[in-house]
Design goal:
alpha/beta; globular; TIM Barrel
């Protein structure tokens, strides 16, 4: 039976690792997620944007899901991302995820074309009706051009397994707007690294993080400091972290964060085409950011 997902704490949008021939590198995947859990994350999200969702087949996702469940399933919430253009394909993957034993789903609006608000609401409702798994909706109008508005959310309150929203609008006030409208009906998780501290201070329940894939302890400590009211400690740590966190709001965020994970010993750089590893001046810039951060990296007891 699936866990009761709290949707609180840090949920890494985990990287997917590959061998040079493009096949899944499950050994490195296990190494990374084991370290995430050792550092105190609440759960992991498989096959998100950072997980190179656009290059993963359903078989890939389910292989990663099975691997994660076997590796850390007793210690963390295992969440599978669904990003589909077809309602039926989304339902099929949701049903398989439930059959495999996933603890929950992250669900994007229908992809490939810009649907109407009514189509988005119906899509979410149809998937919710097809599964018992708890669902985290992904609200990212900047990248996906679809806003999940307060009005749309209000139509989804009747589905008890739609429980949380990943807030990636880049508008910090949307945390307050959502809490004002719904109280604790929907948990709110920050989905943008560079404004995570601000959103946590304003009442976000969790953080779907990116740089956590390379720096899990630092990410978890910021969350814990804020929730414990240790804002000076959180502020100082966040100031150190910000140049790294800005690697998450770049078009090449996958390559950036994979390179950072190489430097911290829990990742490899290989990406699936059409992505290519960083080269030239951009590679030099990213390495400089990582090197400078590593020189002053905080030490926790």
């Amino acid at each position: 039976m699936a866990k009761n997902v709290k949707w609180e704490g840090v949920y890494p949008a985990v990287l997917t690792f590959f061998y040079d021939d493009g096949t899944l590198d499950l050994a490195m995947f296990k190494k990374n997620i084991n370290f995430q859990v050792e550092c105190g994350v609440q759960g992991i999200i498989i096959g998100g944007s950072l997980g190179e969702s656009s290059t993963l087949t359903h078989e890939d996702r389910l292989t990663l899901l099975k691997c994660a469940l076997e590796t850390v399933g007793d210690k963390a919430d295992i969440i599978l991302n669904i990003a589909e253009g077809s309602t039926q394909n989304a339902i099929t993957l949701a049903e398989k995820a439930e059959m495999y034993g996933a603890d929950g789903l992250m669900l994007l609006p229908p992809m490939m074309y810009k649907p109407t608000d009514d189509e988005v609401v119906r899509f979410f409702a149809d998937v919710a009706e097809a599964t018992n798994l708890p669902i985290l909706l992904y609200n990212n109008p900047v990248d996906y051009k679809i806003l999940i508005s307060i009005e749309m959310l209000s139509q989804l309150t009747i589905y008890p397994n739609i429980q949380a929203i990943k807030e990636s609008t880049r508008d910090v006030s949307n945390v307050t707007r959502t809490k004002n409208a719904f109280g604790d009906r929907f948990k709110v998780l920050c989905g943008v690294d560079t404004i995570a501290m601000e959103e946590l201070v304003m009442g976000a329940d969790g953080w779907v993080a990116g740089l956590v894939d390379a720096f899990p302890k630092e990410t978890v400590m910021i969350y814990q400091y804020v929730k414990e009211g240790k804002l000076d400690e959180a502020r100082n740590l966040f100031r150190w972290f910000l140049p790294l966190l800005e690697l998450d709001i770049d078009a090449q965020l996958v390559q950036n964060i994979k390179l950072a994970a190489v430097y911290t010993g829990i990742g490899t750089e290989v990406v699936r085409p059409p992505r290519q590893i960083l080269e030239g001046s951009r590679r030099i810039e990213v390495i400089k950011i990582i090197d400078e951060a590593m020189k002053d990296r905080p030490v926790f007891e």
